[in-house]
Structure formats: structure tokens, C-alpha cells
Amino acid sequence: MSNFKLKDPQTCRIFFSSPFGGMEDEREELTRKYFPQIQHFCSLHGVNFVAVDMRWGITSEASSNSQVINICLRELDRSDFFAGFFGQRYGWHGRDDDNLQDNFDNALRRYPWLENFRDKSVTELEFLHGHLNNPGALPAVICFRDKSYDDKEREKAQEKGDKKQIFKYSAESDKSTKLMEDLKLRCDQTKEKTYGVHLSYPDPLEGAKLMFDAIWKFLNNVLPELQTVTTETKRSKLLAQHDAFLASRHKMYGVGDKNIRSLLNLLNEECPSPLLVTGSSGIGKSTLLSVFISRVKSEYRSQFSVAYHCVGHAEESSGPDQILQRLTEELEFASDVMEGKEEKKSQKKTEVQDVRDIINQLAAAISKIQSKGKQCIVIIDGVEKASKAKRTEEVLFWLPHKLPEGTIVIVSANSSQPEILDELSKRSFNKMEIQEMSEEMRQEFAKKTLMERGKELSPSQMKKIVETAAAENPRYLKVLLNELIVFGYFRLLDQKIDSLVKCESIDELFEKVLERLEDDNKESGYEGNLVEQVTCVIFLSRQGMSEAEIVNMFNIPSHVWSPFFFSINMYLLNQGGLIKFGFQELKDAVERKYLSVETIRKKYTQLIADYFEEQMQRLPKLKSSWKNNDLARVSLELPFAYQSLNDLPNLANTLTHLSVLSCLIEKQCLTELYDLWESTGYGWRQITERYLTAVDVQVADVYIIQQEEGTIHQQTPGSLVMDNLLDIFNLLDYVHHFDGCEKVLLRLLHMEDQNVNEVNMKESLNRESAMYKLATTYHNNSKLQKSLDIHLQVLKDRERRVPDLKNACSEDLERLGNSYNGIGTNYLIIGDYMKAEEYLKKSLECSEKGQDKNNESICHMNLANIYTEMGEHHKAMKCLEKAIQLTKEVYYGHQPLYLGLLYNNMGLCHRRLNRVDDAEKYYQLSLDVKRNTVGDHHPLLCQTYTCLSVIETLRGDEEKALQYNQLAVDIYKRNDTPENDMVYVRCKENVILNLLNLDRKAEAGLLYIPFFELLEKEMKNGNSHLIDGTLPLIHMDILKYLIKNKQEEVARKVLKTLVKTKAVTPLDYVLLKEVNTKLNPGDKAQENDDYDGSMSVDEALKEWPSDSKLLEYKIRNLINSEDSQELIDFFNSVCPEIYNITSLVNFILGMFATTEKFSNKMFVEFNENALSHLPKTEVECIKNCLRNTAESYEREKILEKSLELYKQWIEIDIDNPYPYFKVSYCLALSTGDIDEAKKYCTEARERAEKSGPSQAQLLQKILQLWGFLEEAEESKKSD
């Protein structure tokens, strides 16, 4: 028996034989408890398990056609193991039963030995054919139930008057009892050639277990040879897992001959295009590929090497690098086989490589096979299931864009993944969409599936199933059939079918699966709803749950867990030891059935939290003692459980745990950390203090441990928590809380100084690194001088270490380049662009020599910032283009946060070149990258929102500009950003500017006062660059508002500070003089007061004669004084020696248009004076003055003067119809000369008509005037 082999290497068929009545409980126990375990064990070996139970495998039609014996024995011929079991009933027998004898007649042709056994029952015939006719030929186990059990069950039934039950547990007759005893004797005599003969097992549960134990022993005898092969190497082990998955799908769905032909046609194409196989969930994509792979292997092996990968259905199968690496190894193995090389049994674990390197290796492996005369087929099933390690990843970045010509590339993806489908479409993948199954296909598939499990349905039962609309989906049909196969009560089969086909969707059907699993576990003795518990924690967990975690969480006994797990395992995935749902529809069913009530959801989330809280408390206090997997599970589940529960205190405590912080940073979960802390409501100052307190506690704990271990003198406690401080710094730096970064780094440096002696301090790279970080933090926190001082200090040590760039190692070059870059960016902010460029170019040289593309990119960005500030925007854009190119090379397939900064700066260049639409495009790209990387509330978004606000201002939408700036300010507030942060300051300034532009001066004033007080405070602290960089226009407009609203004292305070900064304008000195005069008029002026820089407007104009704001101030005051002569005298005194006369005239005329006190007299006198000074060459300005003067006289009803001026206008503008019209109008009203008036009106009409549509309105007025003149002429004649 130990040499027995499966008849079909891919299938293990076990035949279960028993009478129909009285043995239901054994069959039910086998079906629900043990079959799933057997199926799981077989699947691990790539074998499909088929339980052949003819008690409901034969239809009523087959029975009526007398084919029962024939079918049963033929199924036995296909089987690999015989399991027979009896109660007290012997089964269907009798020479006088015509129907049974017809069955014998029909079976004799194939099985002539039956002629001698016509008096035996059908079940004994199975015993004879399966074992007794040739003992040992077919592995077998035989079990007879103890008579006492049947007697007890019969007595219970008699008490209840249940005739059916009495029948089940009673022997048919004395004869049947004798036949049974004879059968027992013959079986017992052959027990040495079986896996066991048990003559009196006590009850159904024990009987089922005896059969299972025998089957398990058989499987371990027959399958180890396969197991040895699959575990020989890691490659072959993984291949077996992928093969096992494909084998499970191979016979599942009806995928259609048309689809197979389409795939096979690819084999004949010279340059086949890549192909996407798509369709809805459960439609049969994996099955189609499984069938195709099988056909290629069997029929085209000599022409093609095929490498395939099923994402998420084997160990190490979901990561992009894992997918590509395994495909490469498969093709390299195929190449070695072609060369006759043997595969090595042990393989060293390779380090994770860059995806680009693996793609190159894959291409090389394909080329090598092609050089030997074969083509390659690369298949990836389920590309949408590939794990996404970082939020910055581009869609399918890892999927090769190009492989050697002739390679057939096939991928499958769910049709509900538009991003995947769009990306593959862009890459010119052809698309094959699998359609729903027709009724014919459904029937064929259902029949085939049932036949493989030794089952058959009647035509009416089959019709019910295949005519169900939802059965168009193969997954629905497969799940439904699975439920029928594990159903042990043949007489209730119609009811079961009716119940299942009522389900209108797969998720509804999965609810039935859950109900069935609940029923299966009711008799286990386990308290609680095991199905609900397990599925709910899997659903609510973030990564899935391991078996051990689930079992420990609910204290599930192994005898309860194992059968349940094996019964549901076909619907689950195991990835890296963590159990997840294998189907989204099952996940949806769990949510709808168990988790629709919030209290239930919270209950199970709390259980997850409690479990991992306990695990966290068990973590060792020293980082060196942490077990990575235990820590990772706590860190990646517990905080998120508390967040879901809104348990903010416990969430904060968990995040403050230094081991959790370390793990999340190591797992590159900074964005998640940020989001988790944001949900607590704590400010970043509080968070910083919590972490520093945690460090203090850790130091104390370490000290106690060292005392206990006697290691107190080996290392200072502080030295053992430095990594924790660096973790805290990395988080705070990520969220831009630079005040916190300072505190952490100063604490770190203090500990570092305690840990190294003075001799080693200068050589300590750790200390040097911390100092560099501190310098960078000071820069980010707008403490530029401190930053520069420390950078220069660090630079000395780094330059001393690298006397010659040519012979420097890459690490030293990187450190030196970073220092040059840090110093250069400081000079950039200070505004010393020459020094900034000098140091940045030194940094660039280090980066190029050290081949540090990342820092090289940063250098190009900072150089671009210099050129942008210098107005050399095209030069800046070239630097940015280079930086973007380098960044994409470094972060292949990803869009890192840094790329968002580059896009933002590129947008700034376009904006300054007045390419508003291009600028907006880059700003939106920047925003997309930043949001994808750090979420919606990170301070880094603020810069882009500010830039977008400028775009809206340029477009005239000041309200939208204000919204963008306010959004930025709110983000800064939310993140507890220091008030003196330079970009934060600019955002608040922008809000004030938007409000001024919207003429909401009162709101602007309220925001301005605390804003200016901050600037003043920072200036006193040595950070004058903040106020120096503000917009003078804002100060000026606010000051005017303050003065106008009698807030001179506030205005003077602002002005006294402003005149000491680079943000001062000449007008500020004048305004200071004005408020001083108002606050201290005449004799009240304090003569001994220190000079504050104030001056009169005339003094200021002597100092800055060309300043437009001073000129505006002077002229507006003159206009408001309504003293024409003073205005004219001023005009005459400065023209043309200081100002261009025409420009000044136009400037003053513009002031008249906006003045609050308009004097028509003053306006006329100024225009007349201007006309006397304007050169004749300044025609446009003269026309403007003539018109102003003429219309002003007209308003005063002095028509004679108006008439004279309009005529002068005609002399220099003979083609303009307007002055002719006005002359005609004045003549008619002043002199009454109708003829002369009509003459000018005619001239006006002719010129207006020549001008076309542009003078349409004027022409209408001319025609009205003409009508008036005609009436006047008629009236004159009648008089």
C-alpha cells in the first residue's frame, strides 16, 4: 500500500460507501469537519480532493433507468481509496426486487462477477468491488457501528413515535442481519491488508474520526513524494504554490473555446502585442490563464518557455520586486534546463534590488532563451493585487514597458480597476474581456464540477440552477455548487437548492455560506459565534490576522479551530502568515451580516485593540531586544484600532510608545503617523513634550536594567536612546514642527557630549550629523544666522576630512556636499545670491563626483531658486528640468514629495513669465503629488495654495485667491506651526492683501495689527528678514486706513518700526510726519524728541523726486486743498526738468478722476495751464486737455468757451466725428445759428458713418440732434 500511486496525479478520489438510511450523521461529520482538512492537505501538494459519496450522487432518473450499481462500481474504478461504514441496516437488497435485479442485469456486461451476488445489497457490492474481491489492491478502511448505539436511537424514536427514525436504526430482517454478520467476518479476516477494520465503533462522531485518521495516514503515504519535490528549492516550492492555485482554478469555470483560441493565436504572431485579460470579479480570468498555460506546456513546450505568476496566491507573491524576481528566476531556470544544468538545492537570499535592475535581468533571461531558439511567454494574473509599498508609487510602474521583441506578455486585471485599465491602454495593450456564461456553458460547467466530486443532479434541479440569472457569473455558480457538494442530506437537496438560488448576488450567496458555517459549528461545544468572531476580526484588522492571533484572541480549542479553518480556507488568502478574505464579495457579506450595527463593529475593534495592547505591554524595554514581527504587528494594528474606536487617550499613549514610533518610521509610515496624531487633537508642541518625557522614562528604565545586569559602566543610558531621539526628530521634521526638532536635537547633542570624551568629540560623526541637522532646523525655523554659524562650523570638520575631492569616498563627498548646500540655501534666503551660487556650485561638484543624483537634483533646484530671484527665469527653468529628470531617475516609478516642490517652482517660473495657464498646470501637479504623499493637511501644501492664489489674483478672482490663502493659514494653525515661520508669515500677509483688494479694509486692519506685532518682535530678536521681505503696499494701505479712521497712535507705532527696515518706502517718512503733526499739533510738538526720520512731502520729493507714491500723495493733497494756483505752481516748478510733462499731466488727470473732493473750477484751470505748456507734438495729451476743458465749461453752461475749445479740437483731429457733433450742439444752443449747426452736424454724421460700428451710439445721437435742428429750422420759418 505504501507504493500506491494516485490514478490521476492531480486528483485524489475517496469513495465513501454506506447504506442510505441511518448513516447521515457520519456523512455529515465527514463532510463538514474532515473534508475541508483533507482538501487543504491535498491542495498543498497541488492535488484536488474529490469525495465520492453515491448516496446523493445518483439521480432519480439514473435509478429509474436501473443504472445505480453500474454507476457506483464505475466510480469505484476511478477511486484511490475505499471507506466503508455500516450501522444496523444492510441496505437495498433482495432477489425478488425487480428494479434491483434490472440494475444487476445492466451492470453484468461490465462486471460479470455480479451474477454470483444477486442476493447482496448494493452497499456490499461496493465493499466487494472496493476491497473484498481483491484485498489490498485498493487502500481501504472499514467501520461497523456498535449495535447498542442503534438500539438507543431506535428506543428514542419509539418514545417519540417517529417511524422514520425507527426505520433508520432497525435491521431490515433477520436475513439481513445474518448477511451483515457474514460481511463483518469476511472484512475482519482481511484487516491486515487495510488501513483498519473497526467492528464496533460507539457513535457517528467516533466513526467519522476513525475514517479520517485512516485517510490521513493514506495521504501521508501517497503524497510525500510530491512534497519532497516541491520543497527541494525555494523556486520549486513557490512554483508549486502557484501551480496549486492554478490547479484549483483549472476546472472551475467555463471560459469558452473562443477565448482559448484567441490566446493560442498569439503563439502564431511574429510581433504579438501585449494582452490584457479583464472582466468582472469571478468571471474566470485565472481559469482562462490556467487552461492556456496547461495547453502551452503540453502542446508547445518545444517552442515556448512560459513563466507565470499569480499575484497574492503564494508566499512572497504580492510585492512588485517579488513578482519580477520570480518570473526572472523561472526563465533563468528554463534556460539552465535547456543547457542541461541542474538546479542548486540551496539558494542564498538575495538583497532587495532596484526594480529597474530586476527588469534588466528579466530581459536578459528572455534574450538568452531566445538565442537558443525559443520564444518566451510572461503571464501575470491579477496585476491589481500587487502591493503598494508607498503612496508615491505610479500605477504599474514595475510592469516592464518593453521586453525583447517577440515576447508574449499577458496580464489579467479586474474590470473594476479603471486606473489599471487606463494605464495598460496607454501602453497599447490589446484587451480581451471575458463575458458572462451562457446557459449552455453553465450547464456544462455545473455537470462537470459535480461529476468530478461524484455527484449528479436531476434535470429539474440542474434547470433551477442554470436558469438563475446570477449564475451567469462563474464564481457565483462555483460557490453555489460547493455548497451543494458539502451538503450531506440528499432528501433535503431540493430545499437547499431553492434556498441558494434565491440569492441574487455573490455576496448574498456568501451570506448563505456564513450561515452554513455557523450551523456546522453549533455542535462543536464552543461558546460564542465562531464564524462571526473570526470573520469580523479579519474584516476589521488593517493587515489581516494570523491563525495564532485569532486562536489566542478567542481562546479557540484546536479541535474547534482546525475543522472550521479548513472549511472556510478555500475562501481566504494567506499572505505572509496573515489571513485575509480571498473574495471581496465575502468581505461585503461579512460586513452586511455582522457589522452593520456600530456597536458590534466597536465590540470587535475593541477586542483587536485589547489583544494588541496586551502584546505591546509585553514588548521588552530595550530596542535591541524587540522581535521585529511582534513589534510590527502591534505597530501596524493597535494605533489604527484605537483611531477607529476614537479612543484618543489610548491612541496617543500607543503612538508615544517609542518602540511603536520606531517601527512605523522603519516601515515608512510617516504619513500614517502624521494622520494618526492629527486625529488625537494634540498640538505638535504637546506631542514633542510627550515624546521627550517618554525618552526620560526610557533612560530611567535602561539605567535600572543596567544595574540589574551589572552593565552600568559599559554604556551610558542616554546612548541607548539616541536612536529614539532620531526617530522623534524624523517625525517632527516630516510635519515641519521645527521648534520641536530644535528641542530634540539639543537633547541628542547633550547626550552625545556625555557619551564621548573631548578627544573623540571632534571625530564623532554622530555628533557632526546632529549638528548638521540642527543647522538645517534653524534654517527651516527662520533662524538664519544661527543656521549659518553652525553650518560653517560643521563645514570645517568636513573639509578637513576631505582635503582632495578626487580621492574622497562617496560618503565624505555626500556629507561635504550637504554642508555646501545648507550654507548656499542660507545665503539664498538672506539675499546674497553670489555667495549662494558659489556654495551651491561647490555642492553640485561634490554630488557629481560622488554620483549622488539625489543631492545633485537638490542643488539644481536651489540654483533655480537663485536664478528665479534674479529674474533669470529661463535659466531657472533649465535647472528645474534637470532636477526633475534626476529625481525621476532616482525615484523610478514613484512621485516623491520632492517632485511636488520642483513642480511648484517650475510653476513659479512660468507665472513670472506671465504664462498663467502653464503655471497653474504645474501648481496642480505639485498639489497632486503633495496630497498623494502627505495628505490634505500638511504644511507643504501651503506653498502651492499660495501660488494658486496669485494665479487667481492675476485672473481677477480675488475671492478665490483669498480662499486659497485662508486654506494655507488654516493648515499652518492646525499643525501648530511657529508664528515666525517664514512661509506662514507670507500666507498671513497674503490674506491681508486679498482683503485690501476686496475693499474689506476693516477686516484687513484687524488681522494686520497682531501680524505687525509679530514682525516687530522677530526684528528685535534678530530675525529682521521677516519684516524686510513684506510687501510695502500692504503697510501703506493699512497705514492710510488707520490715519483715515483716527488711529494715528497705532499708525505712528507701525511707522516708527517700519522706517528702520528694508520694507520702508519714501512715503512712510511723510506719513510719519503727518501723524506726528496730528498727534502733536503746533506748540504741543516735543522739540526735544529724538529725530525719528519723519519728513515733509516736499523734503521727501527732493530726496526721491521720481517716487510715484510721493508724487501721488503731494498731488492728492493739493487737489483736496482746492487751491488751483498751488497745484499749478507745483506743476510748473517740476516740469519739464524733473518729470516728463505729458506723463505728469496724465498722472494728475488720473488723480482728479479718483479724488474725493472734485472741483470743476480747479480742473479747468489745471487743464488750461497744461495746454499752455504742452508741446504741439503731444497731440493726444492736448486733445485730452481740450476735451476736459470744453466739457467742464459745458457743465458750467459757458457754451461760448466750450465752442471755441471744441473747434480747436477739430483742428488737430479732423476725422473724429465727436468734436463736430459737440460744435453743432453748442452752436444750436448758444448762437441759434441753425445753418452753421447743421453744417457741423452733417460733417459729424459723415465721419461717424465712415467709422462703422465703433461709432454706432454716437451716430444715434447725431441723428437725434439732426432731428432737433430740423424742427428748430421749421419753427423759425413759421415764425
From TrEMBL:
<dbReference type="InterPro" id="IPR027417">
    <property type="entry name" value="P-loop_NTPase"/>
</dbReference>
<dbReference type="Pfam" id="PF13271">
    <property type="entry name" value="DUF4062"/>
</dbReference>
<keyword id="KW-0802">TPR repeat</keyword>
<feature type="repeat" description="TPR">
    <location>
        <begin position="857"/>
        <end position="890"/>
    </location>
</feature>
<keyword id="KW-0879">Wnt signaling pathway</keyword>
<dbReference type="InterPro" id="IPR056883">
    <property type="entry name" value="NPHP3_hel"/>
</dbReference>
<dbReference type="InterPro" id="IPR025139">
    <property type="entry name" value="DUF4062"/>
</dbReference>
<dbReference type="InterPro" id="IPR051191">
    <property type="entry name" value="DCAF12"/>
</dbReference>
<dbReference type="InterPro" id="IPR011579">
    <property type="entry name" value="ATPase_dom"/>
</dbReference>
<feature type="repeat" description="TPR">
    <location>
        <begin position="817"/>
        <end position="850"/>
    </location>
</feature>
<feature type="domain" description="AAA+ ATPase">
    <location>
        <begin position="271"/>
        <end position="438"/>
    </location>
</feature>
<dbReference type="GO" id="GO:0080008">
    <property type="term" value="C:Cul4-RING E3 ubiquitin ligase complex"/>
</dbReference>
<dbReference type="InterPro" id="IPR011990">
    <property type="entry name" value="TPR-like_helical_dom_sf"/>
</dbReference>
<dbReference type="GO" id="GO:0005524">
    <property type="term" value="F:ATP binding"/>
</dbReference>
<dbReference type="Pfam" id="PF24884">
    <property type="entry name" value="NPHP3_hel"/>
</dbReference>
<dbReference type="InterPro" id="IPR019734">
    <property type="entry name" value="TPR_rpt"/>
</dbReference>
<dbReference type="Pfam" id="PF13424">
    <property type="entry name" value="TPR_12"/>
</dbReference>
<dbReference type="InterPro" id="IPR003593">
    <property type="entry name" value="AAA+_ATPase"/>
</dbReference>
<keyword id="KW-0677">Repeat</keyword>
<dbReference type="Pfam" id="PF01637">
    <property type="entry name" value="ATPase_2"/>
</dbReference>
<protein>
    <recommendedName>
        <fullName>Nephrocystin-3</fullName>
    </recommendedName>
</protein>
<dbReference type="GO" id="GO:0016055">
    <property type="term" value="P:Wnt signaling pathway"/>
</dbReference>
